[in-house]
Amino acid sequence: MKPFLSEDFLLETETAKELFYEKAKSLPVIDFHNHLNPKEIYEDRRYDNLTQAWLGGDHYKWRAMRAWGVSEEQITGGAKDYDKFVAWADTVANAIGNPLYHWTHLELLRYFGIRKPLTAQSAGEIWQEANETLHSPGYSARGLLRMQNVKVLCTTDDPADSLEYHRKLRQEGFEIAVLPTFRPEVALGIEKEGFLAYMEKLGGAVGRELLTAADLLDALEKRLDYFVEAGCVASDHSLEGSIFRPSDEEEVTAILRKRRDGKRLTKDECDVYHGFLLSELGKKYAKRGLVMQLHIGAMRNNATRMFRRLGPDAGVDGMGDFPFASQLAALLDDMDRTGELPKTVLYYLNPKDAEMLSVLAGCFQDGGQGIRGKLQLGSAWWFCDHKTGMERQLTTLASTGMLPAFIGMLTDSRSFLSFPRHEYFRRILCNVFGGWVERGEYPADLDALKRMVEQICCGNARRYFGGCIAESYA
Question: N or C: which end of the chain has fewer CB within 10 A?
């Protein structure tokens, strides 16, 4: 029986151990998609206690606590921070088989040197020890990033954002590149309640009223260039329903006018609008060499009562199962037929879509541009972000594409303590490779395998995203 969280955690073969210890362990982290707050990085935020650092905004933990019968008062309510921590300790102690158990204990070990399992009984001792450490020098937001050898992180930002803190960090010369990501989600949400107010906000950012499709595209393009000047190398889109229907600028202008007049849009009109903007924005990304990230399959805000109480991102989103293969293919083809398909990462939330997306990506690869893996099957995302999900993603990509061209892992997190997830991924990656070698499915060419590991962990992302990521990579 192996001890819990030993040095060889998740490494089942000698090959896996050699790949991890001699290559993966020491590689820098390029976290190209997360939801960290750049203001907290610039101001170098410090946390009063572990509850603030761990539980605030973490809907992964909130879901588990609700399932364990913890009251909302002790999750997002007004309970004392220590009581919330004890409730979390009791929850995670019972989260056997859940990635939260592994993540929690990796974070305790890597940041605080604590090996003791977290339980309701050990919570008091761990609370005291971790909090004392949090108050010591080096445990600010920036210090936590340095501890995990983070070299680049890409936040997620609205087109109308001033990017004040990204620019301040860059002007200051902060050694970790903190880059914005262009996420025009609200601009695409023509069916949403706040759309018209957002059009005024976006128009204000460019100094003009947005009346037509051309006006809107021009405004988004101006903001895109503003983002690029601030170091942006990628965009991000959440696709949660119909993805693409062919249309033109005149049709979309009529739909915008109808929305501005306060008339109800049909589903078909909303779909036309979404598809037009996605395709036109994709072409603008391609022109600038940016990566287009498509996160596909979330089903948002399912519990109305909880949504009304807490708002979005509160742990009541789910996994959709809508069919979208033909529409996604049409979207990619609409950009590709004119040579304007950008580098694109396809993330799935429903595991049923993994093979379909990997195979579809293969239809649009373009070796003539010298880009390995121009279209990527993204890392295991959200409800797939666990040991089984990562293994499935790696083996799916290996079976249907080219795994050594993969751009690797990201945290997709709001927490400064989440970066040991890269170690978690790297251990799983090395173990998958080690298993293939030990079973005689690949030669024991350790030099070649180490090169692949380095490429997947950070080298491919450096080349794929380019720009400030390439400049900051060491």
Answer: N
